[in-house]
């Protein structure tokens, strides 16, 4: 399982890095970015789904 | 909702606070000449389409409602412009409000909160939350960021009140006399603010400092410095949006915890839940309850056809009570997960200051809970709401 952010959709709400700080970080302008290659460990799967369902712009995808 | 409305004297024009709507999600009102969008999915659709729902609303406002004077310009007003200009201007300041950057302000916000509460205690009598904390805290923080003296905050409050606390009705069909009065009431504070910020901006050009005003006068877009007028308008919006909204958020959150004491007890016991309390407060009592857009073409929305060049009110507050999205929308329930409220807007104009507002809300509420147990309004001194229909906030909130 991997997560991906669509940069065209992301508007910097910051819910992802608030809810799943192990998976997401922020760039210098506050937009979300995936940490590392986006691979989600089994313990982080719940957090990943939480980030997906909380993203107001629906910018996060689970691959 | 009956008890909430009666207990706090929620004005009639705040229709969506008085209970979730049962009418259609999109509607035209011939009386005001305005289209209104109330439904959650319809609102998201509109906010996700800034090409059709343009922020350049002045284009469709009748000329008689706009000033002819050269004192009036919305150039650089971030909330009133579309891409590509919007994208470029927003980029200039977006890095100043990221979570990482504002996190450094936490100790300052905490100190200020304690100072203001200490001052109120020394003065004696009861705490009036708005004057004693909810107003001075955010205005001081944004003034310090911008680089204007926070000691001028009474002046800022006067301007903000003159600009925002006027209308009790939103309409395009007012009498000429009403329009003239509305215009004059807005132009005077705008002119004063323009002169004030212009003076400070000119000073930064001569003597740069480490503040946002300096960043604005030094910023370049496409290799060119911003015109003075844009710098001033940009600073104006940061100053106004940077405090009026957070003042409302702080007051509203305390009001929610007064109305729902079991939620106050829960927040007090589990401070990690405070961010969720702030989010639910933004949904339940959305400070900026509506934003305006102008259609650039005929468009279908929620089963209605809105013609081109019409002014459309997008009621964020009503969408945040849409039962199709939120179960029991009229209940304040911080446990909602997810809570995809539209309190900070949505799409490309999503609130730039959201991380700062969230931080100020969390720090101030934590300290209030530490120092007041319980946090209770005074039943003998009623709460007063701001009358402006598009704004949800209290201007008088006495605590017992």
UniProtKB/TrEMBL annotation, chain A:
GO MF terms, alphabetically ordered: 3 iron, 4 sulfur cluster binding; metal ion binding
SUPFAM superfamilies found in the cross-reference section: 4Fe-4S ferredoxins
Pfam families: Fer4_15
Cofactor dependence: [3Fe-4S] cluster
Gene3D superfamilies: 3.30.70.20
InterPro entries assigned: Fe-S_cluster_ET
Alphabetic keyword roster: 3Fe-4S, Electron transport, Iron, Iron-sulfur, Metal-binding, Transport
Name of the featured protein: Ferredoxin
Organism, scientific name: Sphaerisporangium melleum
From TrEMBL, chain B:
Keywords for the protein's UniProt record, in alphabetical order: Heme, Iron, Metal-binding, Monooxygenase, Oxidoreductase
GO BP terms in the entry: cholesterol catabolic process
Any GO MF annotation of the entry: iron ion binding
PROSITE patterns for the chain: CYTOCHROME_P450
Pfam families linked to this entry: p450
PANTHER family: BIOTIN BIOSYNTHESIS CYTOCHROME P450, P450, PUTATIVE (EUROFUNG)-RELATED
Family note: Belongs to the cytochrome P450 family.
Name by which UniProt lists this protein: Cytochrome P450
Species of origin: Sphaerisporangium melleum
Native organism taxonomy: Bacteria, Bacillati, Actinomycetota, Actinomycetes, Streptosporangiales
């Amino acid at each position: 399982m991997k997560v991906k952010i669509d940069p065209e959709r992301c508007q910097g709400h910051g819910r992802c890095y608030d809810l799943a700080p192990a998976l997401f970080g922020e760039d210098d302008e506050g937009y979300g970015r995936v940490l590392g290659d986006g691979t989600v460990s089994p313990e982080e799967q719940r957090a990943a789904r939480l980030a997906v369902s909380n993203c107001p712009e629906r910018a996060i995808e689970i691959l | 909702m009956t008890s909430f409305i009666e207990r706090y004297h929620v004005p009639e024009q705040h229709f969506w606070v008085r209970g979730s709507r049962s009418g259609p999600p999109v509607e035209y009102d011939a009386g005001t000449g305005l289209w209104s969008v109330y439904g959650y999915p319809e609102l998201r659709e509109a906010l996700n389409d800034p090409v059709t729902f343009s922020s350049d609303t002045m284009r469709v406002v009748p000329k008689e409602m706009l000033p002819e004077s050269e004192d009036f310009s919305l150039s650089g007003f971030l909330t009133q412009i579309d891409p590509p200009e919007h994208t470029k201007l927003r980029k200039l300041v977006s890095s100043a409000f990221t979570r990482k950057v504002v996190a450094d302000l936490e100790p300052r916000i905490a100190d200020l909160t304690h100072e203001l509460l200490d001052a109120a205690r020394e003065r004696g009598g009861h705490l009036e939350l708005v004057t004693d904390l909810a107003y001075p805290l955010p205005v001081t923080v944004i003034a310090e960021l911008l680089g204007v003296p926070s000691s001028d905050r009474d002046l800022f409050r006067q301007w903000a009140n003159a600009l925002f606390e006027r209308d009790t009705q939103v309409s395009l069909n007012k009498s000429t006399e009403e329009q003239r009065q509305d215009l004059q009431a807005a132009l005077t504070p705008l002119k004063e603010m323009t002169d004030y910020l212009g003076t400070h901006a000119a000073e930064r050009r001569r003597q740069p400092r480490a503040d946002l005003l300096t960043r604005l006068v030094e910023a370049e877009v496409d290799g060119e410095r911003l015109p003075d007028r844009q710098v001033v308008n940009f600073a104006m919006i940061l100053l106004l949006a940077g405090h009026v909204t957070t003042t409302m958020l702080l007051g509203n959150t305390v009001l929610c915890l007064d109305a729902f004491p079991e939620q106050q007890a829960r927040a007090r016991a589990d401070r990690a839940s405070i961010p969720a309390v702030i989010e639910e407060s933004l949904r339940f009592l959305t400070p900026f309850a509506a934003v305006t857009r102008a259609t650039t073409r005929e468009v279908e929305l929620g089963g209605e056809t809105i013609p081109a060049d019409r002014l459309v009110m997008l009621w964020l507050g009503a969408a945040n009570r849409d039962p199709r999205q939120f179960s029991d929308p009229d209940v304040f329930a911080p446990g909602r997960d997810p809570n995809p409220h539209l309190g900070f807007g949505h799409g490309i104009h999503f609130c730039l200051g959201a991380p700062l507002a969230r931080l100020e809300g969390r720090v101030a509420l934590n300290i209030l809970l530490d120092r007041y147990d319980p946090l209770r309004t005074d039943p003998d001194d009623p709460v007063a709401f701001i009358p402006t229909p598009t704004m949800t906030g209290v201007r008088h909130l006495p605590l017992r």
